[in-house]
TrEMBL record:
Keywords: Chaperone. PANTHER family: J DOMAIN-CONTAINING PROTEIN, PUTATIVE, EXPRESSED-RELATED. This is DnaJ domain-containing protein. Residues 188-198 have a biased composition (Low complexity).
C-alpha cells in the first residue's frame, strides 16, 4: 500500500514504538503552541521534559508542525487512540499533564481554556472531574471561559477598546462614505460613458443614414442617366430605322421608276467601247490592245486589191475605230 494515502500524523503512528505516547505527545504539543509569550525553543524543551519517559521513538519537530497547523483531524485521531488504548486513570494523567503545561506561567490563556475543555470532552472526562482536577493542580477554581464576542471581555482586557471601537466605527463610516462617493462617481462616470456611447451611436446612425441616402440618390441619378441614355439610344435607333426605311422606300421607288422609264440609248462612251468590242469598265490598256487588234483587222491597206466599194467600206470602218479610240483615250 502506498504511503501517499496516509496523513503525516498517521505515518507517525505507523512508525511509532508506542502509538499512545505519540498521540499524547500531539495533544500536549497542541496545548503548548497556544501558550502566550513562549518561544518555540521553550515549547520544545518543555515538551521534551514532560514526555521524557515516552517511548514514541521519533523527533518532536513533525509533531510540533502538525500542532502548529491546527490539524483537528489529527488531534481527534490522537484523542481516539488515547481513549481506546488507555484506562480512565491514564486519560486523567494525560489531562493532568495538559493542565500543567497550559498553566506553567500561572495564567490560563483563553485558547487553552477552550482546548483543555475540548480535550476533556474527547477523553470522556466529565466537566466536574475536569474542574476538580484543575483546582487541585493550580489551587484556583476553573472559571468559565470568557467570551471575546462580548464587550465586557474587552473592557477588562483592553481599556482602549471602546475608544478604538469608536475610531474603527468612524473609520468604517468614513470608508463607507468614501466607497459610496466612489460608487457615485463611478456611476456618474458610467452614465457619462453610456451617454457618450449613445451619442456616438446616434451620430454614427445619422451618418450612416446620411450615407445611405446619398448612396440612394447617387443610384437614382445613375439610374436616371442610364434610362436617359437608353431613351436616347432608342430614339437614335428609331431614327436610324426610319431613315433606313425611308432609304429603302426611296431606292424601291427609284428602282420602280427605273423599271417604268423607257430605256435610253447608250451614251457615246458606251458606243465607243462597243466599236472596239469592249464593255463598260475597260481601262486604257484594254483600249490600246483592242484598237491595235481592230486596226489590223479593218485597216484599208488590207483591201487594196479589192473593189473600190470594199476599200470605201474598210476606210469608213477604220475611221470609226480611229474616232472611238481617240475619244476614249481623251476621256478615260
Amino acid at each position: 500500500m502506498s504511503i501517499a494515502r496516509f496523513s503525516p500524523f498517521e505515518l507517525l503512528l505507523l512508525k511509532s514504538r508506542s502509538q499512545v505516547d505519540t498521540a499524547t505527545l500531539l495533544l500536549l504539543a497542541w496545548v503548548l503552541v497556544h501558550r502566550q509569550q513562549v518561544s518555540e525553543g521553550q515549547r520544545r524543551r518543555r515538551l521534551a521534559q514532560v514526555t521524557a519517559q515516552f517511548r514514541h521513538g521519533h523527533e518532536l519537530g513533525p509533531v510540533m508542525s502538525i500542532a502548529h497547523n491546527q490539524d483537528l483531524q489529527a488531534i481527534q485521531l490522537a484523542a481516539e487512540v488515547v481513549r481506546k488504548e488507555c484506562s480512565n486513570e491514564r486519560s486523567l494523567s494525560i489531562l493532568y499533564q495538559a493542565i500543567t503545561v497550559a498553566t506553567d506561567d500561572g495564567e490560563l490563556s483563553l485558547n487553552n481554556h477552550y482546548i483543555l475543555g475540548f480535550l476533556a470532552d474527547l477523553l470522556n472526562v466529565t466537566p466536574a472531574t475536569f474542574s476538580t482536577l484543575f483546582h487541585e493542580l493550580t489551587g484556583k477554581p476553573l472559571q468559565s471561559a470568557e467570551d471575546p464576542s462580548r464587550d465586557a471581555y474587552w473592557q477588562v482586557h483592553d481599556p482602549e477598546y471602546h475608544a478604538r471601537k469608536a475610531r474603527d466605527a468612524h473609520a468604517a463610516e468614513q470608508k463607507a462614505k468614501e466607497a459610496e462617493e466612489r460608487q457615485r462617481a463611478n456611476k456618474e462616470q458610467q452614465q457619462q460613458k453610456q451617454q457618450n456611447k449613445q451619442r456616438q451611436q446616434e451620430e454614427a446612425h445619422r451618418e450612416k443614414a446620411k450615407q445611405e441616402q446619398a448612396k440612394q440618390e447617387q443610384n437614382k441619378r445613375e439610374q436616371d442617366k442610364q434610362q436617359e441614355r437608353r431613351k436616347r439610344q432608342e430614339q437614335t435607333q428609331q431614327q436610324e430605322r426610319q431613315r433606313w426605311q425611308q432609304e429603302q422606300k426611296r431606292q424601291e421607288e427609284a428602282r420602280r421608276q427605273q423599271r417604268e422609264r423607257p430605256s435610253s440609248p447608250p451614251d457615246r462612251n458606251t458606243r465607243a467601247l462597243a466599236v472596239l468590242g469592249l464593255t463598260p469598265g475597260a481601262n486604257r490598256a484594254d483600249i490600246r490592245r483592242a484598237y491595235r487588234r481592230m486596226a489590223q483587222l479593218h485597216h484599208p491597206d488590207r483591201f487594196y486589191s479589192g473593189s473600190e466599194h470594199q476599200i470605201a467600206l474598210a476606210s469608213t470602218r477604220f475611221q470609226r475605230i480611229k474616232s472611238a479610240y481617240d475619244y476614249l483615250m481623251q476621256n478615260t
